[in-house]
Design goal:
Chain A: InterPro entries: BPD_transp_1_N, MetI-like, MetI-like_sf. Chain A: This is Peptide/nickel transport system permease protein. The complex is a heterotrimer. Chain A is mainly alpha-helical. Helix content of chain A is 79%, strand content 0%. Chain A has 15 helices and no strands. Chain C has 2 domains: 236 residues, Periplasmic binding protein-like II (D-Maltodextrin-Binding Protein, domain 2, 3-Layer(aba) Sandwich); 215 residues, Dipeptide-binding Protein, Domain 3 (Dipeptide-binding Protein, domain 3). Chain C contains 17 helices and 20 strands. In chain C, 51% of the residues are buried. Classes of the chains: A mainly alpha, B mainly alpha, C alpha+beta. Chains in contact: A-B, A-C, B-C.
Chain lengths: 324, 303, 532
Amino acid sequence: MIKYTINRIIMVPILLLLVAFFIFILLNLSESDPVVLMLPSEYTQADYDAMEAKFGLDKPMPVQYFNWVVNFVQGDMGTSFKTQGPVADDVGFRIPISLKLAFITTLIMVILGIPLGVMCAVKQYTAFDSIVNVLAKFLGSIPGFWLGLILIMTFSVNLGWFPTYGTGTLRHWVLPVFTLLLPFLANYVRQVRSAMLDCIRQDYIRTARSKGAKEGYVIFREALKNALLPIITLTGGIFATMIGGAVLVEKVFAIPGVGFKIVEAINSRDMPTLLACTMILAIFTIMVQLIVDLSYALVDPRIRSSFAGKKKRKETKKLKEEVA
Amino acid sequence: MLKTEKAAAEQLVKREKSTKNSQGREVWHRLSSRPVAMIAFVGVSLLILIAIFADLIVPYEMAIKQIATDKLMPPGSPGHLLGTDNFGRDIFARIIHGTRTALQIGLISAASSLFISAILASVCSMLGGIVDNIIMRVIDVISCIPGLVVALAICAALGNGVPQLIVALTFSGLPMHTKMVRSVALTLSKMDYVESAVALGGKPSYIMYRHLFPNLTSIMIINGTAQVSMNIMMGATLGFIGLGVKAPTPEWGTMLASGLNFMMRNQYMVLVPGLVLAISALLINTLGDCLRDAFDPQLKGRA
Amino acid sequence: MKLRKYSIFLALVMILMTFAACGNGGTDQPDPSGTVSNSTTGDAPNEGTAGIQKGTSFKYWVNYDMPSHMPWKDSRGAALYNQLYDNLLYKYQMNQNDIRGNLAESWKVSDDGMVWVFQIKKDAYFTSGNQVNAEAFVKTWDITKEFQPRYFSAVKSYEATGEFELTITLNNPSATFIYDLPMQSLCGVVDPKAIEQYGSEDNKAAIGCGPYYIESYTSGKGFVLKANPNYHNPDKAPSIETCELVIIPDENTALIALMNGDLDCLNTVNIEVYNNLKQKGWDVLEVEDRVNPFWFNAREVEIFKNDAVREALCHMVDWEAASQLVYDGKYPASKSYWAGPGMVPYSDKYKYDPQLGLKILADAGFKPEDIKFTMLADPDFTNLEIAIQAQLNELGLVNVKTVTYDGATCYGMLKGGTYEMFPCHNGYGVESPLTPFSMGLTPQSTQRVMWLDYINKDRYAEAMKLYEAANTSATNEDYLKNVEALTSLVQDECLAMGGVQVYRFYAVAKNITGVHVAPITGYMDFCYLKVK
């Protein structure tokens, strides 16, 4: 287990380095020269060189990449092309906001999604199942920006229950959370349902039933427990997507999150900000994946044993060599 | 009773006759036995037909012609079945020609990302070792960034337009598919017939073409349909952010986004493209689910 | 079949929801009583110092962030700077003809009009508690000059000739200097001690002596401004205790927020927002904004160097029709590149005659499809550009395209000169009709749009001579004459296609009075606002 954990943790920085490299390549594809965008319309070659040197853009790409990594590790995310100030000032405060939005949404998704999914699996092919299925698909097919405006019009303007924008109190979060939630919830319920169905058909469930165990016990203690593994993976994945995928919700509800900053950075060709934001997303995605994998290993003895097995195999191999 | 038995027997004979493409027939048979699947199938076929014959239904000219006197007309106005938008352009014509754009974006990007992922997955499973490791690490790297952000970054690097959008969406769908197809391909490559082909000295490219690809079709079609609707939605999202297709090309997402401004004066500018978008995605998703059931009856009904 | 039924049912529910959302939106809106005073005539002036109304607040919408709070960094922050920093002079209630002393108690001009001596108030303090003196102006201007040298083109030198005496020497006698002085960017004075402590880039140094000070700033969310209790000027004393600048990137959300009472003021050039507000019975203040000529960038697009191409394009756009289509005729087609003083009506080169335009193109040896360029649009003008693109495409100019970026990006591209065609008013002000030229024509210009030197070097030299003459004219008549000559020269060269006269719309919550808006720039001073 410890070895597995260490193995996975070592992979994190390597993966991050590669992500940064990938974004570097992608940004270098862009035709527009950021230096020209920052300079006034009439400039001399000296001005150009000075500006280029100021942002370290005069060096070859690998050197730029190396410098960026060294600075990033030290907590310096670079200088924004747009504000010409430190990127960290503009991005740092957004992380908790994005996390909060993603966290609340995921929490509600789990609270609503798992019971609904289980219900659907238990009552397969009933009207309830069909309604949830169609509703899920339909909600998943409505673009988020439209849904957001409909919710504002209905619940803020007509009913006056919630404020229209902002992030102050808990009431502010209700509409954005639901706008973000609905399309994801649809997919989530369907996945929970299919994970449950997978389990319900297993032999041990049949055995438990034939032994005369109560249906509730079978469903919640036996089937759900085993279905939790894929559900954890799914939840982790959706949480990671939500941190950066809430672009539209952030725009419509004026929430200063990381996702919307990415759109702004792309629109203003502000590469250092884009790079920093994407890295933050990647860090969270990888962290969530790591936690999911580790909890998997914790729950599933097979993964643990595969590592123990390797170690033991090596030991026996060594012993054999020594004997030889 | 006798009749159905006879029909069944006839079908059995028919099926045995057709040695080629038997899986396709089987699938079609299962599909046609479910009304929901048929509705979805007919709906999607209709969408494709509309996209192909858009020019016959209504000339493209109508979709971009701006008429100042016909601004913001409600549906049912003379000459404008679904009304007009803020430029006096016919919404019906824009929806019809938007179908073409939407399907272009959805189908081509889904197909190409599936095709690439199938090649990558086959290469991974056939060659294994370092090649597999390298490809999968690259895929891991892309999958660390949310798909929407990948698409955004590529669109920003390449600029606006339908081809650029297709490239961006192809790329953003790649990691998920490659992972999924690879796991199937790995199981396949351990099958007896593949191993015997390898033992007989078949070239990897031959084995890929002859043994792996045909068996990957089902999972590719299933994933592909889901990806089509997802890509149409993502295209609409990018349109809302301003990275979508160029004006005045009709596209549902852009129509919806620009209609939001006029929501209070003519709600149909939002309602029509929004509903068309939602219903199309619903149809395509339903068809995908039904196809999954049809390809693998064991999985029937599981999402 | 079940599934199908449900989906139809759901579709119906969605339709109903949207109808409900769209249709009943305005049932509980404030009644349309006249609450907004006209910008130029003004309402009853502030009777003395009414004092700060405790517990009152005002929320003002902005759609972009202002990461730097220092007045010299970015002119886009004017909505903020106007509240924070005070000048020597100010325009009373935004009226450009009513210039009064603000931090200057009195001032004298030498007979030749070259030397201006200002006596500075002795009872003015920065919000940090430090006293305002002549040295503070000198220090602020030293930094401003570094960032924005353009503002000081007419100024030879400035110095503190006493603790409270400031002397400014001009290069030439200037008729417009008195109008330029109240401009925020030139004179907004910042506490020099704060600059010494934090440096000129740090927002902690954003300490002025204006009617409001920053209580808190949250990047991405906005500003909370508090009324300055020790404000020096009773005519401009703030009434509302808390003013907020709220950042909402999406205009539709902002509109809904205003109707819902979550915002107190929205200003926009979006005609549809105006229509929506009117429909819901709001009283909307209309202020003449800029004319936005569509400038040809001859540096980026080779064909624009050809006189015939530019002239042909000027003939090819029916601005009246475009205005009817996009703005219901609310923004009329422009008569000149600028509105107001210095305006010269368009010559025949701007008459709508597409066949003539095509003929000019053909005579110059161009096929319609050779004309290839992309119009850059900020979201405010996307629809206008789509309409114009359709007109040009219909005439066979199929390679004319449009691309939209957000306002900040367009501004950046404008500054860098990396665009092909851009509609832009370029700093025009009624009191300073020369500004568009200093911002768009001169080599040091920050928003270069007139690329005459790339088209015709001789004409450019001629234009620069007129520009210099205008800059140094001794009387207002001379000044205007030179500006007019310059305008007609530029118009004669067809440096831009025509445009439309834009209006800016202000909708203010009905309990707020005392709205004063500067024409063209659209700046608003929060200090005149009151809660009923």
